[in-house]
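Morning - 3-phosphoglyceric acid inputs below, output right after.
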Amino acid sequence: MRVLVATEKPFSPIAVEGIKKIVLEAGFEFALLEKYESKAVLLEAVSEVNALIVRSDKIDAEVFAHAPELKIVVRAGAGYDNIDLEAATKAGVVVMNTPGQNANAVAELVFGMLLYAVRNQFNGKAGTELGGKTLGLHAFGNVARNVARIAKGFGMNIVAYDAYCPAELFETNGVKQVLSPEELFKEADVISLHVPSTPETRGSIGKALVGSMRTNAILVNTARQDIINEPELLEVLEARTDLRYLTDIALAADAEAREKLGQRYFATPKKMGAQTAEANVNAGLAAARQIVAYINDGVTRFKVN
Ligand code: 3PG
């Protein structure tokens, strides 16, 4: 049984060692492909593997066609929009994710970006505080719940919208539930996006929602780029010079946004929400354990196709 870790954005060395140990202890073979520069390299690397661990790496029908021995792909992370589930199912490959394992890391980055923004990029000028402000969470999954936990430490009030989350979960987490995105965007000083990328959410954050935000509001995106309607977002940000957009996934028009919006736009150079040693260990080791459990005992917990 051959397990390949194929990550264009590498895990921390300690996570790779941990994954390797689990794989070898199960009596499987371990292979590693990091920072690969082209799809062709990935296609060649998967030709004899039975199990695959990936991050945001694009795994499509072509990859499955080049991997005739593949039984399982685990996305070490939460969002699996990078994997073609239909093609996986057609190829008889099980796909899993590792929900929650990197959630704290992403949640901490939300506050890193927020502090950087409200303290004017630490330039010495008077900024503002997060305490007493209202935070709006768009979706209330693992990352958003961690954001809520940290926000309480800052003394923020928290409201959240999630159409799929049971009402009692908001209550047990001390969060006020609102019943529509429209209500959410109007009620908060900071909106943090946590919806997955799905046909329903793609392009859903546009003019109407962003334009309805409070004066001096901040929009934070540590979710996915394609949930944003980029032309509409840029239009609103140009018209409303009080608004700010902080994102872990740069806009396609990144250079233009930097030029036009200045410090009201901040994007990390590479998606780094889950890029901590701890998150890599949590998600990477969970992925390796899920593969061993599936191959040895047929355990399909966290299967998404
Ligand atoms: C996730 O969906 O788990 C996060 O977006 C992290 O993605 P990454 O593994 O590419 O950093």
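Note: The domain at 103-267 is CATH 3.40.50.720 (Rossmann fold).

O.
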